[in-house]
Amino acid sequence: MKAICIALEKTELAQNITAALGQELHLARYRQFADGEITVSLEHSEYYAGKTVVILQSTGAPVNEHTLGVAFLAQELKNAGAQRVIAVVPYLGYARQERSSIAGKPGSAQLIAKLFEASGIDELIVLDLHEPSAIEFFSIPVHNLKAQAVIADHIKKEFLSLSNTCLIAPDKGASDYVQVVADMIGVGTLIFSKQRFAADQTRILRHEGGCSGTIGIMLDDIIATGGTAVNVCNALPAMGYQEIYGYFVHPVLAGPAIERIEKSAFLKLFVSNTLSLSKEAAAAPKIAVFDVSGILVDAIKKIIL
Hints:
Blueprint: E1 3-7, H1 12-21, E2 25-27, E3 29-32, E4 38-41, E5 52-56, H2 63-79, E6 84-88, H3 108-119, E7 123-127, E8 142-145, H4 148-158, E9 165-169, H5 175-185, E10 188-198, E11 201-208, E12 215-223, H6 227-235, E13 243-251, H7 257-263, E14 268-272, H8 279-283, E15 287-290, H9 293-304
Parallel strand pairs: 1-2, 1-5, 5-6, 6-7, 7-8, 9-10, 9-12, 12-13, 13-14, 14-15
Antiparallel strand pairs: 3-4, 10-11
Helix pairs in contact: 1-9, 2-3, 4-5
């Protein structure tokens, strides 16, 4: 593969991807000034001239720094003469802001799309974009990969029997995603509805679905503050569920999320490595990590080779 892999930081996911590709992970020089501005530079910039370069970097917390960092890195690579820049951004910050507070107007996700394009990124790979319609903001090719097959395989390996198991959608927005995984593993679903009364606060209204069992596995693309997930989880024991687990692709885990999870009825929460866990999250007994590098590697190979 004639490509160079580079990142702003050495994450587990980036290392897994480069190892599978048989490549070395290069790191950009990333520095923050006293006033908060950041700068990104390259060591031996001449090395990138005429090359295809793959950026491996999610734009999670700190979201603003990582988002600008990816854009600045792409610009610097093009300044160095890189022929093609492919950005692999498994978790794309601001993807949940596809709509403006003004009806009918695009949200901040459109501006991020324009920033990435202006920076020189030629092609973008993301994983489980929260709002797929945000792809329409880009004029460059965007590959929105899905982790459903990885999750289905992990569930089948983790649980010896699925005869008394239901997949749980914590809200209607997750129902289609959950149904795909449910069909893969041959179980039924239970879909909850919620009402949002503040930016990160929700209440559970009702649920639908004919599935009943003693093991509940909740599934969604993102877990942020954990409010909705924990509210649904804590309602399940009264419905006969004796074991409750969760699968979430992007572990944002902001604010009181860890405390909420540890105090909840969840026995275990499985999250992917699209985002690096904080020290608190990594030490939390109920949180375990599964790897999604395989599907990203396959996508990179198809684009590069």
